[in-house]
Amino acid sequence: MSLPALFALLLLAGAAPAAAHHPGERLDEVMAEKEPAFEPTDSRRMPPLALTGAEGASVHLSGLADQIVVLSFRPDGCGAPCADQQALLQEVREAVNVTPMREMVQFLTVGGDVAPDPDGEAANWRSVMPSDETVAAAAAAFAALSSRGTEAPMVHVIDRGGRHAGIFHGAAFRRINLVLYINGRTNAPPPEPGLLDRLFGAFR
């Protein structure tokens, strides 16, 4: 077990009894105060994203609605900024996966080599490619959800039920802050569907 993963596990375990101090509904506000790279979004509408994983299998965000999805993009030519962010996300994933959150979180990297998860069938990371657009176009569509206008690669956190909850920008954010944010989202009740969600759901 790596040191960051062990640190995250001990921190989360130590924080469990202090439920009374959990930010709860103020999670986005609290995280925005402590992590400059975090941007809350709270959007129920995301760009369409059709994905293909290893061996041509289709991956749909709607099929992951019961999990927290950590979505990142690695377009061609992104270079060091994306490589640094992916390395940081791997450390976040290692920290998440030594806790009960493992079964509640799915990491998706759009771009790079489409390959099976290195952890095998029990994995919660997938390398995928867009089915009908370029990685850069898909990344730009999701970047439009941000109001910051930055060119740094973004990590999109999608809440259960498909709500776009927030963005972690670049690779300078503290890994423990993303771990704690994911933990907060897993502890929050799934959001109630809005009127449009209920209407469209009736036609599925």
UniProtKB/TrEMBL annotation:
Q: Where is the signal peptide?
A: 1-20
Q: Which keywords annotate this record?
A: Signal
User: Which organism encodes this protein?
Assistant: Albimonas pacifica
Record's protein name: Protein SCO1/2
Entry superkingdom: Bacteria
This protein's record includes keyword Signal = yes
